[in-house]
Amino acid sequence: AQSVTQLGSHVSVSEGALVLLRCNYSSSVPPYLFWYVQYPNQGLQLLLKYTTGATLVKGINGFEAEFKKSETSFHLTKPSAHMSDAAEYFCAVTPFGESGGGADGLTFGKGTHLIIQP
Amino acid sequence: DAGVIQSPRHEVTEMGQEVTLRCKPISGHNSLFWYRQTMMRGLELLIYFNNNVPIDDSGMPEDRFSAKMPNASFSTLKIQPSEPRDSAVYFCASSFVLEATSRVYEQYFGPGTRLTVT
């Protein structure tokens, strides 16, 4: 079984400041990790993902995340916040490894609402 | 590509009525997922299909919920009878899974159906 914890249901930063959204996971097998963004009244859009290989992954809109196995973390960052980044962000995990046999659903964190102050 | 299509976008119904939500996945995708989003519980996986076959329905809350996928381009989620606590946004997502790896790389979400049961 796997789970995701996102620290902070709301994060507020000033425009131009660093964005840091925290995500910790637990998984009995090596995970695949994802960050999704949800704008008001819309579906979820993939920001970036980690599967294997390089632990620092870059996504759309200037976001990046680093997989740290020792810390079981996958924090999302962006050097300079923009007003258009205001949205709900979800970290998600799906198991990788021995649980084959087809697709597996994603387990999502509760989400972090990012507020950008002008 | 039109993306994942869901209908209706909004549904208001009275307690006890039957509700049917519809989803058309992205052409060529072979996996389909139904999620429910509420303020209290966040995003929950209800059921997913691979090659039109239900793989895991352990997230379906109770027998009032049922899902079908009669072909690769259509799926329904039915609630009968509906209750006020079923009020939520229901998302459909699709993905492609290579049988050789059986891994999900990313899921593409529809815009959701906002269900209100009074």
Tell me what you see in this structure.
- The complex is a heterodimer of chains A (118) and B (118).
- Chain A has 118 residues and is mainly β.
- Chain A is 0% helix and 56% strand.
- Chain A has strands at 2-7, 10-14, 19-27, 31-38, 44-50, 56-58, 64-68, 73-78, 87-95, 107-108, 112-117.
- In chain A, the strands form 2 sheets. In chain A, strands 2, 4, 5, 9, 10 and 11 form a 6-stranded mixed beta sheet that branches. A 5-stranded antiparallel beta sheet of chain A has the order 1-3-8-7-6, with no helix packed on it.
- In chain A, 38% of the residues are buried.
- The model of chain A is unreliable at 97-103 (pLDDT under 50).
- Chain B has strands at 5-7, 10-13, 19-24, 31-38, 42-50, 53-56, 65-71, 74-79, 88-95, 108-109, 113-117.
- In chain B, the strands form 2 sheets. In chain B, strands 2, 4, 5, 6, 9, 10 and 11 form a 7-stranded mixed beta sheet that branches. Chain B has a 4-stranded antiparallel beta sheet with strand order 1-3-8-7, with no helix packed on it.
- In chain B, a hairpin with a 2-residue loop joins strand 5 (42-50) and strand 6.
- The mean pLDDT of chain B is 91.
- Classes of the chains: A mainly beta (118), B mainly beta (118).
The global form of chain B is globular
| Order of helix and strand elements from N to C terminus of chain A | EEEEEEEEEEE
**Fraction in helix of chain B:** under 10%
Proportion of strand residues of chain A? over 45%
Largest sheet of chain B: 7 strands, mixed
| Helix segment tally of chain B | 0
Output the helix-strand order of chain B.
Answer: EEEEEEEEEEE
What characterizes the major β-sheet of chain A? Answer: 6 strands, mixed
How many β-strand stretches of chain B? Answer: 11
